[in-house]
Design a protein that fits this description.
Elements: E1 3-7, E2 10-12, E3 18-25, E4 33-39, E5 45-51, E6 57-59, E7 67-72, E8 77-82, E9 91-101, E10 104-109, E11 113-117
Parallel strand pairs: 2-11
Antiparallel strand pairs: 1-3, 3-8, 4-5, 4-9, 5-6, 7-8, 9-10, 9-11
Length: about 120
């Protein structure tokens, strides 16, 4: 059974930091591209950060220089280090795993973790 379990969200003041974690199980984690996707109140989904199976990273312009995505294949876990947080970073953050294989496209979502940036 595939599971993606996020943790690390919470309430933080502007300028603060949080580290989100996503523990994966039930699939070959190391071969999947791992992503963090956000949904802010009243808005649609936004791709925040991606890390490929060979650890190449990419970020939304809004978080470049502030957020860092990383992965630990030995622990089947992906992280999002969030620094210099702003109120506009307030959102539910979802872990999203994706793989395109000859047999088809496989993707999985976590349940999300709330991040609230407020003084």
């Amino acid at each position: 059974q595939v599971q993606l379990v996020e943790s690390g969200g919470g309430l933080v003041q502007p300028g603060g930091s949080l580290r989100l974690s996503c523990a994966a199980s039930g699939f070959t984690f190391s071969t999947y591209w791992m992503n963090w996707v956000s949904r802010a109140p009243g808005k649609g989904l936004e791709l925040v950060a991606t890390i490929t199976s060979d650890s190449t990273t990419n970020y939304a312009d809004s978080v470049k220089g502030r957020f860092t995505i990383s992965r630990d294949n030995a622990k089947n876990t992906v992280y999002l280090q969030m620094n210099s947080l702003k109120p506009e970073d307030t959102a539910v953050y979802y872990c999203y795993a994706a793989s395109i294989q000859w047999s088809g496209v496989y993707d999985y979502w976590g349940q999300g973790t709330q991040v609230t940036v407020s003084s």
